[in-house]
Specification:
Immunoglobulin-like, alpha+beta, 27% helix, 227 residues, 10 strands, globular, Membrane-bound Lytic Murein Transglycosylase D, Chain A, two-stranded antiparallel ribbon, 19% strand
Amino acid sequence: MPDYIVKPGDCTDSIAYEHGFFWETLWNHADNNELKTARNNPNVLLAGDRVAIPPLREKEETGATEKRHRFRRRGVPAKLRVRILKEALEEHQETGQNARPHEPRPRANIPYVLDIDGNFTSGKTNAEGWIEHSMPPNAKQARLILEPSTPNEVIMPFRLGHLDPVSEISGIQHRLNNMGFPCGPANGVLTPDTREALRRFQAQYGLRPTGEPDDATRAKLVERHAS
């Protein structure tokens, strides 16, 4: 089969699902070694990347005749993981208590409603502020509603699979915006707003606030964003 050309919204999980593979099969295939080295994360690809799609292999299963048999496709579903944090400065303003500077705190036991491509679930964040739910590997959009139907309601939209690699300026902008360092649209241009957001991020996490996307800053962005 010809190589698959990555489009916005694609990740290895969704590409594998659409072509009948486990994501590990594609990610670890020898013809994708160059892609694996360049991207390092199967869920963070860049539009235009090429993914080798090997031929499907047939597999036979035995079973008694005149009986019903159930087969479950392995590797499905995927998972959506989101962590909800509160900045220490915000906590200090709300409570008047001394919070360690620059130390985000988990928002534990916050009720939420999660909409993934029109399928709704509800729950509460765990003690560390995490939300984790199963979803189809080819899901495209999600909407998280925190503290629904209250004065504190917050709606957070997600474009699944649209996170660019941190090697790209657009990937840096995606992560800054997601973590509360607004820098404008993720247009791939190192704008003055992006440099200012980088300086604030660097200062908050103990880096020299140069506004430059150096290797240490990129590594810290991946660490704090968890992707």
